[in-house]
Design brief:
Blueprint lengths: L5 H18 L6 E6 L1 H10 L8 H15 L7 E4 L4 E6 L4 H20 L10 H19 L1 H13 L15 H9 L23 H9 L9 H8 L6 H22 L1 H21 L5 H14 L9 H18 L3 H6 L3 H5 L8 H11 L2 H8 L2 H7 L3 E6 L4 E7 L2 H11 L8 E8 L4 E6 L8 H15 L3 E9 L2 E10 L2 E5 L1
Parallel strand pairs: 1-3, 7-8
Antiparallel strand pairs: 2-3, 4-5, 6-7, 8-9, 9-10
Length: 495
């Protein structure tokens, strides 16, 4: 199989766009960069085409290179939510696979343009990261590599503990106090629904002074952002810049984390339809069809050790389209108790295409699986809980749980809060002594002790005053409160 022909790729690009638009996809202008394997591995490890230096990125690069060299991971493409949308694709992909990847990219483009969780992301992040990398190099020269790297270590330990950008306007603390405590002099609205508004009572000067001391005004998950703004250490400008860049990049990537299954499933769902059209129109020959079938089957292969988002996401979208085409939803269908009638149910509604576009626009993985993952999909994909059994010379994968409702519950639970423990800043002036008090919202999953202790060290480094973390542990058939405390003596644990 020969490598990609540039002129034929341009022709494929034009056809893919026409077919995608015919299917109803709505995407931003698209740019492709065909790059060698090393560059693809660098982008995968460093998250962006150009980024600041950090030891963890070098570690990830070596891991990606090792997997690639041994054939365990081939990065076909990387797509960035930018305008125009930027995609990097591997130069070694055979032509039909390059076409498949391009079709896959246009569906990603459509998803990121239209899904609500991507709407407030910075679409200039590639340029912003490149500029930040230059500034960080100057900081290393001016303030020393060790100090810069230690600050990056601390920031990256907290990078996912922040508020997603789900709205264009971020409320200030003063505005939050007005909302929470009714400080506004005039009512917020007027008319027949005034009785639904909170009472706007006058408060005394003493009460107001006391409320001003409450920080944050209400609990917040934005630990990194709160520390940047309120740390008693009073960061220097370059330190605020480093932490701010880490926060901006995390906010940029959070929508990817929240929609990984949907985004990859959507792209797989559509690249299969687009490729089928290209085969039907004889743009690709039988030999190329064979290559596509081989690579596409690898993309969607089942792995008992982990969830394949390409396989699971596309299967759910296919199931939604089929169900809404046949009317297999709603009280009438759910209430049918005759097995053969339910199996052959087809109301001919043909609402499937409309439904999947609506789901693409408004859902994230957590809600997507909670609402649409069902027994039919779990059985079809063998999405059971597996365990490894030692057979002496090898390990065998054994099905350990087949109850589809338990499997679904475990999957949905793993997606809560994009896989990050929900920890709140509840008091930035604990005991009226500028100490930081954090509370873990315990949802049945205890914190990992080693990770918790190390992260608490970083929080103390950034805050500069004692830090408390309240969580819970299982005890005597229930739970009990436990407390981590980080101070100049290290991290201690108290029951």
């Amino acid at each position: 199989m020969k490598g990609p022909d540039p002129e034929r790729l341009k022709e494929a690009d034009k056809l893919i766009q026409e077919i995608a638009r015919d299917f109803g996809l709505d995407f931003m202008p698209q740019e492709f960069d065909i790059v060698p394997a090393q560059k693809m591995l660098e982008i995968t490890a460093y998250r962006l085409p150009v980024n600041f230096s950090h030891w963890s990125f070098g570690r990830d690069y070596e891991m990606e290179r090792t997997k690639y060299d041994h054939g365990f991971a081939v990065p076909y493409e990387v797509v960035f939510n930018s305008d125009p949308c930027r995609a990097y694709i591997m130069e070694t992909n055979p032509f039909p696979i390059q076409v498949m990847v391009m079709a896959h990219v246009y569906a990603h483009n459509d998803f990121m343009k239209n899904n609500r969780y991507f709407q407030y992301s910075r679409r200039d992040m590639i340029t912003s990261a490149s500029e930040a990398a230059s500034r960080f190099r100057r900081y290393e020269e001016d303030y020393g590599l060790d100090d810069v790297e230690k600050l990056i270590d601390a920031g990256m330990a907290l990078q996912w503990h922040l508020e997603p950008l789900d709205k264009s306007y971020q409320e200030t603390e003063e505005e939050a106090r007005e909302r929470l405590y009714g400080w506004k002099k005039e009512p917020a609205g007027g008319g027949e629904f005034d009785d639904l508004l909170p009472e706007n009572r006058q408060i005394t000067r003493e009460e107001k002074m006391e409320l001003r001391k409450k920080t944050p005004p209400e609990p917040t998950v934005d630990i990194l952002g709160y520390i940047i703004e309120h740390s008693p250490k009073r960061f220097r400008e370059w330190e605020r810049d480093v932490l701010g860049v880490i926060k901006q990049q995390a906010q940029y990537f959070i929508p990817y984390r929240r929609t990984k299954i949907m985004n990859e499933g959507w792209a797989t769902f559509w690249h299969e339809k687009i490729m089928q059209r290209l085969f039907n129109e004889k743009f690709l020959n039988p030999e190329e069809h064979g290559f596509y079938n081989l690579y596409n089957s690898r993309v969607k292969s089942h792995n008992p050790r982990m969830i394949n988002p390409y396989q699971l996401g596309s299967a759910i979208f296919k199931n939604i389209e089929d169900r809404w085409n046949k009317g297999r939803f709603g009280p009438e269908y759910e209430g049918c108790e005759v097995a053969w009638q339910k199996e052959k149910w087809d109301a001919g509604l043909m609402k499937g295409r409309e439904k999947i576009f609506q789901v693409r626009r408004t859902y994230m993985d957590w809600f997507f699986l909670d609402e649409f993952l069902n027994k039919e999909i779990i059985d079809e994909l063998n999405l059971y809980v597996y365990r490894e059994e030692d057979k002496g010379l090898y390990y065998e994968e054994i099905v350990d749980e087949v109850d589809w409702e338990k499997v679904k519950k475990a999957l949905v639970r793993s997606l809560m809060h994009w896989g990050v423990p929900r920890i709140l800043v509840v008091d930035g002036n604990y005991q009226n002594n500028m100490q930081l008090y954090l509370v873990h919202v315990f949802e049945g999953l205890p914190l990992h002790d080693e990770y918790c202790r190390k992260t608490m060290e970083y929080v103390y480094y950034l805050w500069g005053r004692p830090v408390y973390l309240e969580t819970r542990e299982f005890h005597d058939g229930g739970t009990r409160k436990v407390l981590y405390i980080a101070d100049e003596n290290g991290v201690s644990f108290h029951r």
